[in-house]
Amino acid sequence: MFVYIARRLLHAIPTIFGIALIIFVLFNLVGGDPTLQMLGKHANAKQITELRHEYGFDQPMYVQFFEYLKQILTFDFGRSYATKQPITQMIMNGIGPSLTLAIPAFFFTTVLSVSIGLLVAYYRGRWIDRLMVIMCVFGMSLSSLAYILFGQYFLAYKLGWFPIAGFETEWPDRFAYVAMPIIIWVVLSLGHDVRFYRTALLEEINQDYVRTARAKGLGESKVLFVHVLKNGMVPILTNVVIEIPMLILGSFLLEGFFGIPGLGGMTLDAIHNSDFPVIKAMTTVEALLYIFGNLATDVLYSLVDPRVSLK
Amino acid sequence: MSTAIAAKGKSLWSDAWIRLKRDRYAMLSLAIVIFYSILAIATKLEWVASPWDRVVGGAYAPPSFDKIELWGGTDIFGRSVLYKVIQGTRIAMSVGLVSSLISVPIGVTFGAIAGYFGGWVDDVVVWFYTTLSSIPSFMLLIAITYALGKGLTSIYIALSVVAWVGLARVIRGEFIKHKTRDYVVAAESLGASHFSKIFKHIFPNVSHFVIINLSMQFMSAIKAEVILSFLGLGVQGQPSWGVMIDDAKLELARGVWWQLAGATIAMFFVVLAFNILGDALRDALDPKIK
Lengths: 311, 290
Prior knowledge:
A: 78% helix, B: 73% helix
């Protein structure tokens, strides 16, 4: 097990190097002079020179690249251009609000969509199944912006059920502010997730062990909720675990709309302010989280499913 | 009478077409996609909804059936919302088309040479696309559009960079399966070159994956364009659905709902059509599901 994890970590090194290379090329070469984007069109030469020096853009490219690699290894991404705060500090501050929204939303989404997935798998081919599939496709086709605007305009503004936007760090009040974003998140994800779990469970239903279970006289509900669900846990778990590290990132749109000071909202602010160092740092951090999230999934996979060998 | 005995073989394509035709919803979706495409071309040629920035009424006039320009109401400058929605169709379809035209050749070529040659070529290609796909796609889209500067061209490029990976993965997998098959060995023994084996022999046998991919590619491109334009990273000075929804954010409080409704409805039907068509194409073309 230890050897397996060590080997996977070793495998991650070229990928991390590649990410650093791609992001560096994208931001520091393709984008042209970053100072021009940061200062806008009306910058004078003195401002440009000063800013270039402050962020080290006047150094040779390879020095800048090593500087960036050092930032990744030490997890110190310098200071934001817009807020002048250390970026690492901003990221740390953003994790809490992001998770306040993401964890409950993700929990409810998963519980609901697995339950509905099981229900429609039980009634497969019947009208309720078909109705659900149609609703899922319709739900997936509607723009996420439409859900958010509907929630904010009707439920919050018109009906006054929820605050329109804002955030409160104190605990019981925090929930009032994240309640509607959570609901919108759940509704947004349901279409895709229900379809995914339905397909995963239906694939299990055609397996031999299901036929055996039926042949020995077990009822349909017992077959489905005990035998199929247990084996169906593998794709379910994969889908769940792969998303967990992404939860820290929160949701760009929801956080932006509802003024939640999480990482997603922070990234949106950075885009609006052309905050070059923050956008670059966020891209890097997200990619790193993805890689380690993947690694965790594979390790967990091997623990749950004995068919997965650790080679 | 040997011709009468030999049953006429049906190709995968005609077989799939027959199956697709049986699916009513798929055909309806295809009709919707064709309608949007014609509308987009007609708009591009300035046959309809042109000029879109002409003042046709007062500011924020609600929808009315007096004139065709007013069916969707007007925006803050008194421009026709219906025309803007139609112009948005042109942008949405062009984003799907251009990003496909760029990403499909790249995805197919990289996937094919990786799967066919294996070895270090495969290692390099796989390393490249795993690295690229390790950056969450939405963040990558933002990063590319930020680096390249706002505008439609950046959106085309960003979407293509994100999109080729999925196709390359599929094509690589298929090439690995196909390259040891008898027909490829036979072609080799007849002296076929690598190029001819890849593109003349193997590719036609895996090309249906491109079609399946295309439908999904259009859908995600349209969705991504709307969000990027909404965030202000995309289309500038043109009526994209995303820009319209961004405007609507502030208009809603004043009771102006038609700009949001127009853009959302137009987007809903085309995304729905591509969704259904994509599923139907997969069922019709993927021999595994038969």
